[in-house]
Amino acid sequence: MASVQQNGQRYGITEPISLGGPTELDVVKTRELEKYLQDVGLYESKEEAVRREEVLGRLDQIVKTWIKTISRGKGLNDQLLHEANAEIFTFGSYRLGVHGPGADIDTLCVGPRHATREGDFFGELQRMLSEMPEVTELHPVPDAHVPLMGFKLNGVSIDLLYAQLPLWVIPKDLDISQDSILQNADEQTVRSLNGCRVTDQILRLVPNIENFRTTLRCMRFWAKRRGVYSNVSGFLGGINWALLVARICQLYPNALPNMLASRFFRVYTQWRWPNPVLLCSMDEGSLGLQVWDPRRNPKDRLHMMPIITPAYPCMNSSYNVSASTLRIMTGEFQRGKDICEAMEANKADWDTLFEPFAFFEAYKNYLQIDISAANVDDLRKWKGWVESRLRQLTLKIERHTYDMLQCHPHPHDFQDASRPLHCSYFMGLQRKQGVPAAEGEPFDIRRTVEEFKHTVNGYMLWIPGMEISVSHIKRRSLPSFVFPGGVRPSHASKGTWDSKRRAEHRVSSTASAATTTTATTTTNEASSESKAGSNSPGDEKKRKRGDDETLADQLRNSKHVAVPVPAENGEGGSPDPSVGSICSSPMKDSYTNGKSDPINTDPQENVVVFNKEDAPESHPIEKIATPQAPTSEETEELEGSFDFGNQVTATATIPPFEATTSNGSPFSNEALEELEVLPMRQPEVTHRASVQQRKPIIKLNFTSLGKTNGK
């Protein structure tokens, strides 16, 4: 295989980590991977591919007929009427070539200056589509962050965006990759064009498109299986994964997909977030559009996992990521790295890597968010709005508990077949690992939940019947409809990679506890000897620990262009030397986490309390609440140790209010506004005014479940 560097071209902002080509084993492993992806149904049939092309051809005919119709209706002269034209472009997974069977096609219609978005696109074109028998499930969303019309054309799902250019005539060979296309364009047009421009730029910036496509299919499938594929939930969406994979392709330009998948986990396990991922240098442009720049834009400094789009204006495509979702994805990267290393030693296979994440075995406590509406159409609208707001709940809980209470949102909704106009969302809850809780210290999220519900019920299109409720549930109380086939498993998963790691973790924790006990006893017995001299092994360890802390402080205080991210326990190690050159100076600022004073609670109010005294001595919450599932026997033993009180269901229907957005970023709007992760506030010492209208509320009191030595 010829080196991609032989013509002197370099991909990316740095030199590659390796120019090494594939070995014979890499060729064999890549064939196995491709066959695996085919066997699990990630590739569409030739017949479906042909049908998609026919549908796109039909859509092109429709928009050309539409533009002629509105041009004639507006009295354009014969020449402009003859030249009137609109063009269709594709983007997203279809344009990248990684779509699967049944996937929708992201399309963009580019029209001239006299074809308006409000009156013509969502007017005449919408009317034409509604009258066509081959068009079904037409759903216009004119108020979205990026306005679009969703529908099915001959059974193929289409998402159609519109860009109105300040041109009287749209040429048939229009090149939308040129920055000049954005000149004098309105903000919605710039956002609509961005998808196509970014997709095309990605394909230009990878050294081998076929290797990129296979690797991206692999990583998209892995992300979906592990529950980290969802932009709206605070994880990563299709464009984010494409950018991450493209960067790996740049760093290993001659590698095959087998090696690229392995290097993906190796690199991003050691990546020092919030250093940004860039495919090319950022161009500030000459049109005055705002680009991602934490040096100038304070809001950009708050982004946790910047993944920057390569087309002007460069934006952070992953602004929804929170501290909790970043922690979850970092853990998944580490798991992928470990499995790929095991695969190299023939101790694991592709099935191991793609094992589904057992979300409903991973936590002991969950929040259940239930929504309902009066009819199917209202429920569809209500779901779209609630899903766009759910990440607010995650961010608010993190912010109000100073990142001590961590949330893991499930990326999908669940529906009970017996309740067709209802659906449910779930979030796993756990205390931040490694942080002991003071006696009686509560996590009070009552006001947080009320604020969230108030925000959700501020939906501009709210109508009676749209309701939302939030409740706390234990793992053993999860509804059966969340499990495959509606059947609750009789025991936790066994024989999987995750279950083996859990067993090893329990053994390690037990051994660590025994070692700690022995060390404590020895230290107490030899306390007088410790005071006698300064050259003991213990002092040497202290000096070494001090040196490590000094080094950590130097790294923390180093100059950087990054954002402050709350440090997670056990994360943020020094990067591999091979990775150090591909991102900017490391940074790991930590907030000083204050302790929130609980809001006074009436005895009659429902309270969820974790009792320290009743907990098993060997299972502190930072151990048993990790995203790992104990055996079924341990599950019943541990859950029986809690005093949860009464289960809370907080239901409220609040009349809509006029919601305004002060966010000036290019992402701000009603449906998909960017949520700022505000700096941590100090706890308020004054009593808050009571809520004017009292409602059922939730209070979660998480206290340490373990007893330390000597207490």
Automatic annotation (TrEMBL):
Transmembrane segments: none annotated. Residues 590-604 have a biased composition (Polar residues). It is found in: Nucleus. GO terms for biological process: mRNA processing; RNA 3'-end processing. It catalyses: RNA(n) + ATP = RNA(n)-3'-adenine ribonucleotide + diphosphate. Residues 359-417 form the Poly(A) polymerase RNA-binding domain. Mg(2+) 2 binds at D104, D106, D159. It is an enzyme of class 2 (transferase). Residues 508-532 have a biased composition (Low complexity). Residues 12-206 form the Poly(A) polymerase nucleotidyltransferase domain. Pfam families: PAP_central (PF04928), PAP_NTPase (PF20750), PAP_RNA-bind (PF04926). Belongs to the poly(A) polymerase family. Polymerase that creates the 3'-poly(A) tail of mRNA's. This is Poly(A) polymerase. It comes from Brassica campestris.
